[in-house]
Amino acid sequence: MLPVLHFESSYLPRVRRRPMKQPVKVRIMLPMSIRCNTCGSHICQGTKFKSRKEEVVGETYLGNQRFRFYFTCTNCSAVLAIKTQPQHLDCEVESGATRVVENGQRKREAEEMGDVMKSRTYDLNREIDILPALDDMNSMKENLLRTVVQFPSLTDKEIGGRG
Q: Torsions phi, psi of 159, nearest 5?
């Protein structure tokens, strides 16, 4: 006869739940380059951090909740905070650092904010400049296809065959 096994609940591990008010710990990748205000060190775009994520109370955009991420500087361990901007598909630096904007980004942003007609006229002028060069290339290609290379007719004796 087999022994009877009894269930002992005291041997089960306890499951600890995170309290509802504490921020969630997540691992994020920095979406832009920033400079720490405390030590002045640069933190490049794409650097991974363990951060605390919390919802920004009262701020939504078309039903999308905004989030705030807290993480520390890699050099001096100062607390830095960024906040999401769903309307621009971007993030803004909230405290502890400043965003580093490159010259190319500034120029692109200025062009995007500028007149749409300027970009259209630029594209049209570029097309007008390219069209004659394309016509020349097409005519050269047609001339090459029309020319037939004629070799002088050779007899079998000249080729070295039987004859």
A: -75, -30
Q: Which of 15, 14, 72 is nearest to 38 (CA)?
A: 72
What band does 133 get if pLDDT is binned at 50, 70 and 90? confident
**16 or 156: which carries more pLDDT confidence?**
16
Contacts of range 43-48, beta carbons closer than 8 Å, 24 or more positions apart: 43/73, 43/74, 43/97, 47/74
| CB atoms closer than 10 angstroms to residue 84 | 21
Task: Note the pLDDT tens digit of each residue in 21-75.
Answer: 777 889 989 888 898 888 888 888 888 889 999 988 888 888 888 999 999 988 8
Q: End-to-end distance of the chain based on CA atoms, in angstroms?
A: 109
Classify residue 99 by burial, with Cβ atoms within 10 Å: 0-12, 13-18, 19+. middle
160 Rama sector, left if φ>0, alpha if ψ -120 to 50, beta otherwise: left
Which residues, 6 or more positions from 30, have their beta carbon under 8 angstroms from its beta carbon?
43, 44, 45, 46, 47, 48, 49
Global pTM reads 0.53
